[in-house]
Amino acid sequence: MTKENNIIFSLLRVVAVLICVGPVSAQAKPARILSANLCADQLAFRLADRDRIVSASHLITDPEFFPGGVEGIPPNYGEIEEIVSYEPDLVLTGNSMPALTERFLEELGYAVVSVPLVMSVAEARAVIRQAAAALGESPRGEDVIRELDQRLQAATAPPELSRPVAVVFGPNGYTSGRGTLIHELLTLAGWDNLAVRSGIEGWGVLDLEQVLLGAPDAVIFDQYGADQVSQAQDILKHPALSRLAAQGQVLTVPVRYWLCGNMLIAEAAEILAMGAARARAGKVDD
What we know:
alpha/beta, Rossmann fold, 2 domains, 5-stranded parallel β-sheet, 4-stranded parallel β-sheet
């Protein structure tokens, strides 16, 4: 069965639920919030009171994204009948939700707000503001943005300082070049991005030889999927990278801090700024 057929089958099943539940209209300050992906989860938990969140995505059970866990909030997998069963006033989601699902929910009268992909600090501010407005928490959103800006300003490297070279290196050699949020954070924190030196625009791939020939002062990992066994992860276990780690030339930024592009990028910027300061002193890690 195709993905489209699965969605249509779900739509048919949900009709029975709707007979009992019925559609819910948007409210100025929704009392029943359902978040359906990681980025929506992060925003909902930061901007709304916990007792207003009726369900969050299944990723709240993943310690890679929520190390302390989330108690008392049932997880969901973004299925239509599942969403409807919670009778949400607002469905906060992202680009992982199929367009057909989102459209069907809207046609039923559910308020759906989709969090877009973020490619810059300016877009991160806009997403926080958008989510806060949808949640009826605009003043809280402005407070969060103000705190974000203060922390980013504190993490910004003075222009007169030297700029060590870093590269973000992920599974299959995946990296972030010019025009990405990660590149902006690297630059802000005082790093020169080897991916940009190598001509990469947006997201791209570097092979290990390019990384080693570039002689970066730091290789940055985000540990995304580090516990998985796959060919994509194999490159990160190469002896050459292990030697760099032994020499103090590896920096780790937990993926939850920059995957979504919201207030948590302040955490990433602070880690990068401290790493750049140590690199200028001759060693990256502690």
